[in-house]
Structures are given as structure tokens and as C-alpha cells.
Protein 1
Amino acid sequence: MAQRTKFDVDPVERAPLPGTAHPLEVSEQTEAALKLWVVLSRAQAAVSAHASADVARHGLTLTEFAILEALYHRGAMLLGEVQRRILVSSGGITFLVDRLVAKGLVERQACPSDRRARYAALTPDGVGLLRRIFPEHAAMLERALGALEPHEQVEAAALLKRLGHAAAAMDTQHAHFSNA
Amino acid sequence: MAQRTKFDVDPVERAPLPGTAHPLEVSEQTEAALKLWVVLSRAQAAVSAHASADVARHGLTLTEFAILEALYHRGAMLLGEVQRRILVSSGGITFLVDRLVAKGLVERQACPSDRRARYAALTPDGVGLLRRIFPEHAAMLERALGALEPHEQVEAAALLKRLGHAAAAMDTQHAHFSNA
DNA sequence: TCACTCTACCTTAGTACTGAGACACACATC
DNA sequence: GATGTGTGTCTCAGTACTAAGGTAGAGTGA
């Protein structure tokens, strides 16, 4: 890609500083991994841009929407559960729930068996909003991912699931283990 | 997944607020798309965490590293070219290049044919740093993506490439077109 | 019951950006 | 040359978080 879409008026005139280009010489295996990492990031970013723009129409960020969706489909959850589910920091979940409370979509509820803990639960307004926007959000995602046939989506999901689980399970530091 | 890994001491006692759970009823096609979106995001986040931690050892963010890598492999580029390649805002590229200049890894160079434009180019220090850290970064990615066999990586990359291109080409607004 | 440790949440300061707009210059047309 | 439009970069305010640390309560064992 990027076959000189622009700036090709005259390669000689427009690229006077070729100086410090360095060749990429790696094994085929490494090359495959690097390429997968690039396309994985780009695909995620491209879909994310659509999803983000969609929920922004209702004044929500993608992370806020993820919280609402989790609470909608699973019912009230402890803040810590939500945090682990949507992968934000502990400070982040406090901040995000505060914002959703301020918008009237979520409320905190005491946990009777643990006075440290709080549930996050949708308010009636929150339920109403999600009931309204979830279907169109799902439809939008279906369009954004529509370049792949359903069976290809299943196939890609299976590969990515294995990939994600293995990467998440790996020690973040050096992770030199390669136990199959 | 998430089959009550925690908080299952006593489901009755620990989950006293099942109240507002709503069933997810969508077509199989929609379900496939939703699931793909979730695993795509999670896989990207998991790998990103590793990549990010790796470059952080050298005081770099992933975005900064992406710029250095692009300049290393392709040579000096106009700021706008770099911006489109690594997908940041126009303000972002100015900010990021400023930071890399402050670190002594990159320098701006005038463009002789367009006085508005600037090249970003690696300094000798920048070249040296990248020559040193790129191989281990690539090896780390190879490990992080190692759950997939090379041929599976190629397969996944092909699917994600189609997915990403189609999603990126789609109009961000409503995009009701479905022209094959 | 005392001490210790662990967990759940919150607070605060900081970071890595984005978005909107401004400015200078390039280019095309008159 | 004058004028309008598009492009490349920068500025600045704002946003969506993260990281580190703090407090309160829960759980465990002497």
C-alpha cells in the first residue's frame, strides 16, 4: 500500500533526502509477526474509529459505552469486576463511573456483604439509553466488519482469541518462556 | 470465559443484585461481528501492553517508537507523511517530533522545494538507538504473537488487512452503503 | 483481640494525546 | 499581479485516561 498516493509529482524533486533509509533484514517468521502486529493495530484502530464516532453521537466515549453494555447484559457488577472486564486502571473505573453517575445513567449501590465494595448498576435512564442505541451500534459494527464473510469472522475471531489469551497470559517483563 | 473465576464463594450471597440483566438477542451474523470486535480489541490491547512495556524500557512510547521505526526503514519523511503513516492528528505529530528532537533522536530539516514543509530525519543517535533496540523489539513481538503458527499468522494478517482496509475506507458518519 | 496482610475503592498529579483554529506558503486562475 | 483555494505545520486548550499512593474494611492466625 501507499504506492506514492501523493508527492509523486517528481520523485527526484520531492524526495531529496533518501539518505538514511535502512534495509529491513529479518527472518520470514519475524516478518510474519511484524506484519501481523501492524495489520492488527490498524484494523483495530479503523474499527475503533467507527465505533467511537457512533457512540459519540450520544455523548459517550467507547469506554463508557463498554461499561453501560456490560451492566446492561450482565446486571449490576462490583466496580472491580467492571474494571477487570473492560481493562482500565482502578482510578479509571472510579473516574468513569463518576462521569456516568453525573450523566444519570449509572448509580452506585452498597454491597451488603462487604462495606468496602460498591455495585455499579444502570439507572432506568441508562437502561433506556442502551435499549435505544445498542441495536444501531451492533448494526454499525456489522457494517464495519462486513468485509469479512460470517465464516471468516468466526475464523478470525478464533485466531485472535488464542492470540489474545496467550499474549495476556505472558509475563509483561521479559517473558522468555516458550512453553507450548 | 470468565466462568466465575472470582467472587464465586457463594453465588447467592455475593450476587444479591441480579435485577437488571438483559438478554442479548441478536442474529448469528451480528453475534459473529460483535464477538470479532471484542477479541480484536482484546488481542490488540494485550500485544500492545507488551510492546509498550518493551519500548518504555528505553523511555519511549509506542507512538514515538513507530515514528523512529518509520524513519529508520524509509529514511527522512515529511511530517505529513509520518502523520498519515502512524495515524495521529496534525497537532500530535508536531508534539511527538518536538519530543523526539528534545531527546536528540530526530531532527527537522527544511524542504528545499516547499518552504511550508519539514522533513523529520533520524540523528546519528537515533539511528544508533534503533539499530540497538529494534531486533529485540521484533523478537519480543515474535514471542507475544507466538501462540499462532507462522502460517496462521499469515492467514490472520490477510483477514485483518482486508478488514482494516474496508473499515478505513468506509465513511465514518453513517456509511449505509454496502457495495461489495 | 491484636497484628498482619490483602482487597476494594478513591484521590491526586501527570501524560499522551485530540480537535479546532491560525498562519504561511503553494498553486491555479484570472 | 491579484485573488481564491488547498496544503503543511504549529499553537493552545481540553480530554481521557494512567500510575502511584492512600484509606477503610475484610480475612487470617497467634
Protein 2
Amino acid sequence: MNITRVKKGASRSVNDPTAKGKGPPAAGESGAISRTEAVQDALRQAIIEQRLQPGAKLPEDAIGDAFGTSRTIAREALGRLAVEGLVELKPNRGAFVANPSLDEGRDVFVVRRGLERIVTECLSGKLKADEIAVLRDHVAREREVSGHNEVESIRLAGEFHLLLARLTGNHVLVRYVTEVVSRCSLILAMYGRPHSSDCGVSEHGEIVDALIAGNGARAVELMDHHLEAVASRALLQQKAERDIRDVLAPYAARIRGLEA
Amino acid sequence: MNITRVKKGASRSVNDPTAKGKGPPAAGESGAISRTEAVQDALRQAIIEQRLQPGAKLPEDAIGDAFGTSRTIAREALGRLAVEGLVELKPNRGAFVANPSLDEGRDVFVVRRGLERIVTECLSGKLKADEIAVLRDHVAREREVSGHNEVESIRLAGEFHLLLARLTGNHVLVRYVTEVVSRCSLILAMYGRPHSSDCGVSEHGEIVDALIAGNGARAVELMDHHLEAVASRALLQQKAERDIRDVLAPYAARIRGLEA
DNA sequence: GCTTTATGAATTGCATGCACTTGATGCATG
DNA sequence: CATGCATCAAGTGCATGCAATTCATAAAGC
């Protein structure tokens, strides 16, 4: 439940700009955490979904306009996304969608494997019945869309790992896993082959089985291999396509950003 | 070349402060360093060193005044520290130094152990001569101050782990380790016994030895035990002292905050 | 006398204005 | 014709002002 903060206008306008200067933020929302978070979440989503291409410029005004807020909000959201590693902040130049190098990508995957190892160890043999049901259900859904809907497939794959992290009940772990999964999505989108992410659905199922069986070692092994497979699928491309993709992507992205 | 313009707010520079700016701030990215970052680093240091007690209020103007900047800077720094988990942001109430519960503390340590496991695995048998020298030197310094200067001792202990993380060359890893080390410092300060942190110097030495020897398994084991020891030292206190410390700390911190 | 409701001070949330930095365009020069 | 330099526009960096919220204090009601 991370998106619940959004009040009325989810992605379009965070604040109705009718009464721009003095408009009270629709007085008494309960649990209303600042608009900053809403914008931050929206931007994150947009980046992960590749609506905003890596390297694209993110001008404060444009973002403010797009969300019906001032630059202040946009700026703060960008700052926090920079901490998360999804945005790069260049002093006096502005913010850009992160454009991770392959080395960075490798780094992220290394950390991700370590984090998910913790998740797996925490969960092995400790899943409750209802939690198992949720997991099985999720894997089933993944299987459904596999092959049809690629965007959804990617989203669900990421969600699977987030789900596991949440089941640990370890909030710190959840935050970090969330971050690396986001960044991995970006990296896969950049370097992975178009339909390289469908694979692995069966692996998810196996991991769940091992977790239920309480076979921690096997679960960890499965998870690790799973992630290594995903990573290598992405990083293998480099040898062949690095020149084209890696070199051209930033420029292409920049052009796109200017068109928008 | 326009000399007539002198910025008013910049009168008391953020750069000069003899105050806390010591520790290696967010090493990694390019220098850059906006005022926001300076304030962020200073606040982080102050929190870690317990100059700012857990639960203490962090009003924007006070921070702005203290650093000679406006609330804007203070606000942004607080926002980012909140992402790091060192500051808690309560909507419409303001920012407070994080006051992690014991459960949170446990969570942080779990993640930390996982992260440092990665560090250890990355480093085992791959240290170069000059890196080894730096490590040995650091451990020697730790040994020197051990027993005498507690604050410095704690700082160096944290620094040792950061040093290892940096040696991996994995920036993502560095960032996360930095964060968990910070948070662990806070947690130890809150729940650990006064001089519980001196211990472990010899363990650091052993870890370095195992890394040099290329004995990855042993290094991981040592590191894991080391961290478990540190964690348990902190968490054991809870049974006896939870009621007093945990309950009273926030209030005490509040009072201190008001005095300041 | 104690609970409940107004009033006010302090502080956050947010927008906006102004100076400064940076990169681009056009002009003069070798 | 290429190179270096001044001018300019776009956009960031930061401070500040105003409305809204919250908490504390005081007044009114039972």
C-alpha cells in the first residue's frame, strides 16, 4: 500500500489549479502526506514504465505544470528520487532520468541478490497459510499474462519480489528491495532484450515451493540463480549490443525529452 | 565579475562551519555539494553522534538559522534524511530525529548483516596491497583509541565497515551500507550499553586477515558473527532496560531540544 | 471543579520572485 | 573559413511571504 496517499487527482493534477495562488489544498484530507510524495510516486512509476526515457531531462517547471503544483514540490520530489537512484541531479543543470551504465547495473544486481537472499532466509518455512495463498495466487496471475502482456508481465514479476519482501515484515528490507527492484526494472528496460523478462515465471513458483517446504538452502539457491539468470540476460546483451544501445540511448532519450 | 551584488543570505556560509563537518560525506558521486547536501551531512553527523537526541524536534527555521540558510534548504535536507531513515517526518508537525523501536533496530541489523555479507564476499581474496595497508592502518588506529575515546571509537568502528564497502567499488552497496551503519549507530547509541562498542576491534583485524587470505567463507562467518555480536549486545539490553530507556528517551530528548 | 469549546502563537506547506549559473547564438577577429 | 569572445535566454538555487494546520492556553458551560 504505497500509493494510497494520492488524494483526488491521481496522476493528472495533484492540486486543482483553479485558484492557483491561494487555493487551499481541499482542507481536511485525512492522512494526507504532502503532494511531494504523490509527485514522487508518479514520477517513479513513469520512470519505471519507461514513459520517461533514461537520460531525459526533468525540468522543474515542466513537472510542476504537469502536476499542477509549483516547482518547489517538483524539486523536492526530484531530490528524493535522486537519493533513490532513479534520478540524477546535475548541479546547476537540473534533473535527469537516471541513465545507469552497465557497471552500475551490475552493482545494483549484486546488491539485489544479497537483499533477496535475506528475504528468502527470513521467509523459509515461516509462511502462513494465507500468505501462501497470496503468493500462489500471484504466481498464477503471472502465468496468465505471461506471453500476452509484456508490460504487465514485467510489473507482476517485480511485484512478486516486493510481495516476498513485504512478507518478511522488515520495513527496512522492504524499502531497499523496492529500490533495487525499481532500478533493476530500469536497467532491464535499457539493456534487456524486449521479451527477456517473461522467463522466470516457473522459477517464481519453484521458489515459493521451496519456501513452503522450509528448505531454506534450496530456496536461497533458487532465488540466487533466478536473479543471476535475470541479470545475465540483461548483461549478456552488452557484448553484442553495447555499442548501439549504450551509446545511442542517451542521445535518443535526450531528443525525445526535448520533443515532449 | 559583478561585485556589486552580494547575496544577503549567504553571509554565514555553510562551508565554513567548524562544527561537525568531518566524516566522509556521502562519498561516491561527483563532488557537487549544494548547500542542501552540506546541511544534510552535518545533520546526519549530529544525529549519529547523538548531539541530537532521538525524538528531538528539528524545526526548519532553527536549522536554517543554525546553518545560515533559509528554511528551504533545511526542509530539503530533512526530507532526504527522512528517506535515509534518520529523520521522521510527521505531516504538519515537522521533523524529528528518528526514534527507532527495538523491532526496527532488529530489522536494520538483519539488513546490515546481509549487506555486509555481500561486501565480504566481494572483497575476499581481491584486496590489493595498498588497500590492505589502508585497512591495517585503520584497524591500528581503532586499537589506539580503544578504551580512551569512546566517541571516536564508535566513529572509527563505523568507518571500518564503510571503508570495506568502498573497497568493493560498488556505489550502490556503499550507499546502503552507509545508511545502515548510520542507523545502527543511532540504535546502538539508544539501546546499547555505554561502552559496549569498544569490543570488536580484534574482530575487525581477524576479518581483514581472512579477507587477505582469500578465505571467503571464514570472512563471511567472522563478519556475520561480529555483527550478530554487536546487535545482540544492543538488543539484549532491552529486557532489562527497555522500560526506562525506551519510554523515557523521547521525553528527555524533547526537553533537551527545547533547551537548545 | 472539571470538561468542552474558542482564541492565538508557532510552525509547516506551498508558491513565487529574484539572482546566478550554464549553454547557445551571433559577432568580431585572425 | 575557423576560432575566440560578448550577449542572451532558459532554468536552477535559494529566500521569503502567505495561508493552513496544530498545539497550547484561556474562556465558557455544565
